[in-house]
Amino acid sequence: MSERHRAFLALGSNIGDRVGHLRRAIASIPDVEAESAVYETPPISEIAQDAFLNMVVRLDTELDARALLAVCRACEAEAQRVRIDHWGPRTLDVDVLWVDDETVDDPPDLLVPHPRMFERSFVLVPLADVGADLLPARYDLAAVSAADEIVRVGRLDDLDAEPTVLRTHIVGAGRAGGALARALTAAGWPEPTMFGRGADPAAVGVDADLVVIATPDDAIAGVAAALRRRPEVTVAHLAGSLGVDALGDHPRVAAIHPLVSMPDAGTGAARLPGAWFAIAGDPRVQQIVAALDGHAFHVADADRAVYHAAAVVASNHLVALLGHAERIAATAGVPFDAFTGLIRGSVENVASLGPAAALTGPAARGDEATIDRHLAALSEDERAPYAAMVREARRLAGRPAPDPEARS
């Protein structure tokens, strides 16, 4: 049986329900023996972000440093942490600080004792509550707390859950803006204030935490330029192909693109909960993702056009391809409804197996005779798109195009 030993973990959060993130993390950490108080601390980064809540827990455990790192990563994953900037905001950060009688030098994943723990007042101040013997000699807690603006908030069990909603203004009352407003309202947020065409830009952002520009892409820069700069307000857009630079010089900017098809506001609102969102910039947009039980992934400004091209292929081009199938079927007198089960099954296969493994049909198995019969039977205007997709199917299957001379 392994020996038990002391270990210390540091926890911090500055997005959404900070108290809730800390509370849920500690509930899932094994062998917690003592908890520090919770301290509010300013960020140590130039990246625009809100204040952190920090604390330290002491464990009496058999787990070694590597096993504790796995515990930390699991807590962060449960809080849907998105790693965007090294010194950026996070729903939850959990670090292994110290494990008695253990030293690990395995950068960048694990360094124990933590190499910067004695340089960070936001670690040392809560550490004093549960591991004072580890502090540097003659460490003046009161002076450091005052100098670094560290404020004791209280014991975690005594704190109320924090609000996870943002007062939101939405510019653009079309499909995307309307869908987002409905979905957030259904999730328990205050109903967003909507601004349509002709709204006074001076009124947008007053008494709001977040302004979402949900206009067509080519109007976003103009709308952003017309808005008053308010340092406390985050300005975000919903465009997939544009970066945060489209929003100009507002102090807090962000992008959040829901990866869903929204043919109308009602359908979009029903699809947003649980969706995937491409985010960038200010972390407040992660609170939208969390409110909708969604999944966030970061796309840098330089990659957003490529990302959006992939989204267009997955949605718009797929619909256009199905229109191609509908026209071909009609020439044989077959109703398109007969193909919908086949379409759903193919999409489900892709979701579970991936595109390459899900591919079936003549191009996948090298049945060139069947492909030739198809091409001969199709009208001239349908032959070109069919041939183009045969090339793509061969490419996905890893099959070269047949040698024309070998087939003659």
What report would you give on this structure?
- This protein has 408 residues and is of the alpha/beta class.
- The protein contains 15 helices and 15 strands.
- The protein has helices at 18-28, 65-78, 121-130, 141-147, 175-186, 217-226, 265-271, 285-291, 304-331, 340-353, 355-358, 362-365, 368-377, 380-397, 404-407, and strands at residues 5-13, 32-35, 38-41, 52-61, 93-99, 104-106, 110-112, 151-154, 168-171, 193-195, 210-213, 234-237, 252-258, 276-281, 295-298.
- The strands form 3 sheets. The chain has a 7-stranded mixed sheet, with helices on both faces. Strands 1, 2, 3, 4, 5 and 8 form a 6-stranded antiparallel sheet that branches. It has a two-stranded antiparallel ribbon with strand order 6-7.
- Helix 5 (175-186) crosses helix 7.
- The protein is globular, with a radius of gyration of 27 Å.
- The termini are far apart.
Helix content: 25-40%
Corresponding CATH superfamily of the largest domain? 7,8-Dihydro-6-hydroxymethylpterin-pyrophosphokinase HPPK
Low-confidence stretches: none
Instruction: Write down the CATH class of the largest domain.
Output: Alpha Beta
The overall strand count is 15
Radius of gyration (CA) equals 27 Å
Strand order of the largest sheet: 10-9-11-12-13-14-15
Distance between the termini: 75 Å
Biggest pleated-sheet summary? 7 strands, mixed
Tell me which CATH architecture of the largest domain applies here: 2-Layer Sandwich
CATH topology of the largest domain: Alpha-Beta Plaits
Domain tally:
3
Structural class: alpha/beta
**Global geometry:** globular
What is the tally of helical segments?
A: 15
- Following the backbone from N to C, one meets helices and strands in this order, namely EHEEEHEEEHHEEHEEHEEHEHEHHHHHHH
* Overall average residue pLDDT: 90
Q: β content, as a range?
A: 15-25%
